[in-house]
């Protein structure tokens, strides 16, 4: 038996990059996986990959920044699997659909700021709110929110991204306080810049090289580097841990 045998896990942004690695990782541990993504084709490809390996998965098209879409994602999961044990709020606006341009804060278009807050922060609120009734009824649940190491270094040129990811940490701490009595934990994983198929420009590759030089571990971070932490937080191994932030960035920064 795997550490997540028969657990139902929703992964938003599960069709690409780090999200895909999370989906495959929890599936290997026996979870039934909801691969949720705004790109339905990508969500289906990951779900098919899991089922072809003998696992159980459901692909769901979702816009996590829209209340009704987030609620529909949860209904689809319940209709298929009957419950929800883990929510991984991974969907983010940064490298997709195209990498966000580096600008000083006063040059960021207001529409881009608003979209960043909607996808990176509002979605965590919406998706968490959608799953909590089921978790409360079960008297257990795991909410894992994805932040970023940029919060701890104040990465210049991305004020809106850093601000949205800092908000994720604050929101998670409130969740931990409000949901603990129901046996629900809420924690944060803060990755460093991680190489995936989204690495499509010279600017992104240059940032990888820059950050690698600054890390204690002199190598590029890849999606699989994060899976172990996700499995720990999703499993019963972390039942007495809540409200915490785990930084996974090769020692590029310290909390």
Number of strands: 7
Number of domains: 1
Radius of gyration: 17 Å
Report the CATH architecture.
3-Layer(aba) Sandwich
Q: How many helical stretches?
A: 8
In short:
The protein has 255 residues and is an alpha/beta fold. Helix content is 46%, strand content 15%. Strand 4, helix 4 and strand 5 form a beta-alpha-beta unit.
Describe the structure.
The chain is an alpha/beta fold and 255 residues long. The protein has one domain: NAD(P)-binding Rossmann-like Domain (Rossmann fold), CATH 3.40.50.720. It has 8 helices and 7 strands; from the N terminus they run βαβαβαβαβααβααβ. It has helices at residues 17-28, 40-52, 67-81, 110-138, 150-153, 159-179, 202-214, 224-234; strands at 8-12, 32-37, 56-61, 86-89, 141-146, 184-191, 245-248. Strands 3-2-1-4-5-6-7 form a 7-stranded parallel beta sheet, with helices on both faces. Helix 1 links the parallel strand 1 and strand 2 (32-37). The radius of gyration is 17 Å and the shape is globular. The N and C termini lie far apart (35 Å). The model has no long low-confidence stretch (mean pLDDT 93).
């Amino acid at each position: 038996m795997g550490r997540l045998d028969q657990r139902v896990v929703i992964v938003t942004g599960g069709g690409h990059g780090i999200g895909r690695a999370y989906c495959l990782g929890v599936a290997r541990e026996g979870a039934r996986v909801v691969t949720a993504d705004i790109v339905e084709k990508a969500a289906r490809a990951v779900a098919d990959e899991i089922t072809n390996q003998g696992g159980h998965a459901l692909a769901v098209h979702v816009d996590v920044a829209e209340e009704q879409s987030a609620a529909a994602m949860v209904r689809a999961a319940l209709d298929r699997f009957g419950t929800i044990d883990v929510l991984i709020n991974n969907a983010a606006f940064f490298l997709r659909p195209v990498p966000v341009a580096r600008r000083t804060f006063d040059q960021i278009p207001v529409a881009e700021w608003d979209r960043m807050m909607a996808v990176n922060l509002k979605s965590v609120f919406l998706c968490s709110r959608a799953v909590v009734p089921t978790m409360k009824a079960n008297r257990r649940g795991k909410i894992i929110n994805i932040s970023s190491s940029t919060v701890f270094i104040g990465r210049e040129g991305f004020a809106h991204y850093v601000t949205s990811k800092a908000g994720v940490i604050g929101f998670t701490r409130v969740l931990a306080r409000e949901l603990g009595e129901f046996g629900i934990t809420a924690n944060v994983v803060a990755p460093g810049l991680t190489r995936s198929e989204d690495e499509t420009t010279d600017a992104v590759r240059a940032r990888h090289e820059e950050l690698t030089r600054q890390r204690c571990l002199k190598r590029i971070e890849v999606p699989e580097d994060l899976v172990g932490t996700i499995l720990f937080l999703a499993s019963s191994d972390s039942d007495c841990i809540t409200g915490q932030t785990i930084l996974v960035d090769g020692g590029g920064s310290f909390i």
